[in-house]
Amino acid sequence: MCLAVPGRVLGVEERNGTRMATVDFGGVVKEVCLEYLPDLQVGEYAIVHVGFALQRLDEESARRTLELFENLGMLQEEFGDPWEQAAQAGGEELSGEVRR
């Protein structure tokens, strides 16, 4: 399933003529295109779907939605476990303990 998830803008920059943002989705940070919301600013919230910010959202609504998604396990389904992803990227497997 591919959700539209609320996220908070941490930073904005221009890359190759495209306005991009670093966005926090309840602890998972991703890069997002701002072509549909070019005036979105740091600290604001937006609904993001497949890497594009689509609509502004107030902070309270964003927090409630993120909490609901987390409680339902939908953030895990959408983003996966960031610790597991980091371990896999480093060529490690998680088995309850960190391998050295």
TrEMBL record:
Source species: Streptomyces griseoflavus Tu4000
Chain ranges passing through the membrane: none
SUPFAM superfamilies, alphabetized: HupF/HypC-like
Signal sequence residues: none
Species lineage: Bacteria, Bacillati, Actinomycetota, Actinomycetes, Kitasatosporales
Protein's recorded name: Hydrogenase assembly chaperone HypC/HupF
Gene3D superfamilies for this protein: 2.30.30.140
Family of the protein in this entry: Belongs to the HupF/HypC family.
A Pfam cross-reference name: HupF_HypC
GO molecular function, one term: iron ion binding
GO biological process, one term: protein maturation
